[in-house]
Every structure is written in structure tokens, then in C-alpha cells.
Prior knowledge:
Structural class: alpha+beta
CATH architecture: Alpha-Beta Complex
Radius of gyration: 14 Å
Helix content: 10-25%
Strand order of the largest sheet: 4-1-6-5
Number of helices: 2
Largest sheet: 4 strands, mixed
Distance between the termini: 32 Å
Order of helices and strands: EEEEHEEEH
Shape: globular
Low-confidence stretches: none
Amino acid sequence: xxxxxxxxxxxxxxxxxxxxxxxxxxxxxxxxxxxxxxxxxxxxxxxxxxxxxxxxxxxxxxxxxxxxxxxxxxxxxxxxxxxxxxxxxxxxxxxxxxxxxxxxxxxxxxxxxxxxxxxxxxxxxxxxxxx
Length: 131
């Protein structure tokens, strides 16, 4: 078992309540649709990491709207991620993939018509949004 890695993500919603998801091309959970986000760098605040990661991945600035959930992802081989997810909306910019080696199929999805399969973080976020 490795020391847990720290990750972050954003459940980005539009005014209609649709979620912004992208299909992952890299492990963990390659091929699954998930939230945007990434890893927290040493000395970086979680909220700063979310803002940085989203801007790097899809070129938008977010308005973070508060903690949504935390996700424990324990993978075969002893890899362990703990990720903090915040609810968010786009404050500026138009989302477009800026890291095509990592992501594809970026889109807005109604929560009753989500693409499959979903990452564990996306599943946890949907459950948290449903209350």
C-alpha cells in the first residue's frame, strides 16, 4: 500500500443543472467519464489546486460554491487517492480540452442521462448532489 495521494475535483454545473464531464484517457479509471480536476501539489491549498487544475485542463475560471464530498479511491496494487470535490460554476471562459493526451469527449450532461461508465468521484458527486 502506498501513502495516499491527494486529489481534487469540481462538480461543475450549468444553470440547467447539467454536469460538465470528460472521458479520461489515463489511469486511474481510463475510459470512464469523470469530473475535472487533478492532484494537489505540496503546499497548495485545495481550493487553489481545483482552480489551477480546471484552468489547465479546460481553460475556464471557476466560482467555487462549497465542499460537496470527499472520495476514497483504493485501487488494485495498493494505490490510494483521497480527493476533495467542490461544487462549482464557470465564472469566465468557454470549456475546451487543453490536455488532449489526458481527456476527450468533454460535454454537459443531464444528471438523468449521464454517460457510462463513470469514475468513482463522479458517482460520489452525483449522490452528494441528490442529497
